[in-house]
Amino acid sequence: MADVNRGKRPLSPHLTIYRPQLTSITSILTRITGNALIIAMVLIVWWFLAAASSPEYFAIADGVLRSWFGDLVLVLSLWALWYHTLAGVRHLIWDTGAMLEIEKAEMLGKLVIGGSVLLTLLTVAIV
Questions:
Q1: Contacts with 26 (C-beta within 8 Å, 6 or more apart), sequence order
Q2: CATH code for the domain in which residue 86 is found
Q3: pTM
Q4: Contact (CB, 8 A) for 100 and 59
């Protein structure tokens, strides 16, 4: 039989129906940080190309990277690198079939977030 109420309900689950879970948020953040790292890589490659081009062009690129905006981008990129790395380790753990229970998966998500912040702060403090 045809479903007569089909036009009055969503065709697939939607964000307004389901509460975001930590595992889904961390999964989305992994994708976002991966793409953000591409942008940071382009910025750093631009800096290297400017250094190889001329002193004037390098001064422009270096000025951008040493500005408050450049510092912000580089620190956020550092966090994204640590986050993406730890999320990758989490996925390697899951690939073995371990820690797939909801409580343990959420604990891993919290560890990834907290660990990435801690490692970022340690790296900034050391460097």
A1: 87, 90, 109, 112, 113
A2: 1.20.1300.10
A3: 0.81
A4: no
**Do 80 and 40 contact (CB within 8 A), yes or no?**
yes
Residue 31 sits at φ, ψ, to 5 deg, of: -65, -40
Residue 26 has pLDDT above 70, yes or no: yes
Predicted pLDDT of residue 127: 87
Distance, in Å, from the CA atom of 27 to the CA atom of 18, rounded to the nearest integer, reads 16
Number of domains in the chain: 1
The answer to whether 116 touches 86, Cβ cutoff 8 Å, is: yes
Backbone angles phi, psi at 9, to 5 degrees: -135, 160
**Averaged pLDDT for residues 50-57:** 96
Give the burial class of 109: count Cβ atoms within 10 A of its Cβ; 0-12 exposed, 13-18 middle, 19 or more buried: buried
Cβ proximity of 37 and 121 under 8 Å: no
